[in-house]
Amino acid sequence: MEPMESERGMTMGNRGWLERLREYEAPNVTFVDADGGWPIVWVSARGEWVWDVEGRRYVDLTAGFGVAMAGHRSPALVRAIRAQLRSLLHGMGDVHPHVGKVELLEQLSRITFERWTGQGGGRRLRGRAVLGCTGFEAVEIALKTAQRATGRPWVVAFEGGYHGLGYGALNVTHRELFWRPFESQLRRFGCFAPFPGREEDLGRVERCLSRLQRRRAIGAVLVEPVQGRGGIRVPPASFLPWLRAWCDRHGALLILDEIFTGFGRTGRWFACEHFGVVPDVICLGKALTGGFPLSACVGRSDVMESAWPPSAGEALHTSTFQGHPVGCRMALEQIRELERRDLAGRAAGMGAWLMERLRGLRPAPGLEYEVRGLGLMVGLEVRRSDGGPATAVVLDALKRMLVRGFLLLPEGADANVVAFTPPLTVSRAGLERAVRALGECLDEAARATTRERPDHA
Ligand SMILES: Cc1ncc(COP(=O)(O)O)c(C=O)c1O
């Protein structure tokens, strides 16, 4: 009798599955290291743990690209999915709404604009949203919103910024690697300003924006409050308030991409709350559902009303799976759980503790470490003593971490930043072991890299 697929999985191991994958997946999707050290093949996950086809267990310090904010397959989420499956598995997006979508839109307004406005006697404003499927779609809805609300085509984004890889989002994602191969098909409406790392950099940003503004009709400024894929870069405290004022002065929309930073990741519900800034539009995705492709572009109600005319039958932005019932139900449960367990508060405490522990690591010979972050969005940048990025060391160290049972990703254009974005429920013991192991793996990787390429130590 043929073995069940799952039984075969356990006997085949990671290598066997990766060979099958390589036969059928287009070559550019999954990086498979020739030495077999990367990647592993997942079969299940729960809380902070992931298991591979060989039955090995890993601490997931990525939260699966920052999605599993309350842990993988949290019991509350699984219950919500089960309940939803008993009634409605598919809806009709922009034509016949379902109740979960209405409830989610109300909640998105409540946790964003209604929470941010109305203090001190000011008017409480609503948020109105367009739902999408992926993060980049939320960004593209925001770009369309800016074009329609201001009539101006240009968008200022930031060096190192990542907003996804759809043809619209590619215009504002900075890294050349992603857009260059498609350049001839892109209508470029994005321009870039430096992303400041320190207060001293603000002058340069200001001059660049003034220059761009003189030459181009700028409808929006799009920014991640903390750059994630750009290498966990935290701007100085005055940056976002300054950008807010700049946008107000020039009639441009301030669009915050909180796809990575939202839902408690940085120790507040949204990262903009650290800086006291209310955007015109906010993009949400990833942890919104905890594990379902659903995203949202939420704008201040007056902005959305000026951008989007009432539908006369055909929506200007929608898709077949818009506002998927399972995704909406999961998002409602995820928001409830994050609030009930005050996971944003936990991220603030654990993140501070993690950064302190990482700062205690003694750099391997010939290397320098810099630790930065906000809440549980933490990066350890590794440089050689000549200042160059220690990419080879970081990549080697992360493969060693995988062998030791820790999932981590490199971030930054040079892939020399070890990023920690674990579930906010991660245990202190798990983090403690990870920090110790990382110190050792970086030491081992530094020694191995020096042996192999002495001139690149
Ligand atoms: C800040 C930010 N914006 C947008 C995206 C794109 O989201 P998605 O991959 O769901 O399209 C990402 C993904 O990492 C992101 O970090």
UniProtKB/TrEMBL annotation:
PROSITE patterns: AA_TRANSFER_CLASS_3. It comes from the Bacteria. GO terms for molecular function: identical protein binding; pyridoxal phosphate binding; transaminase activity. Its cofactor is pyridoxal 5'-phosphate. The keyword Transferase applies. The keyword Transferase applies. This is Aspartate aminotransferase family protein. It comes from Limisphaera ngatamarikiensis. CDD domains: OAT_like. Belongs to the class-III pyridoxal-phosphate-dependent aminotransferase family. Keywords: Aminotransferase, Pyridoxal phosphate, Transferase.
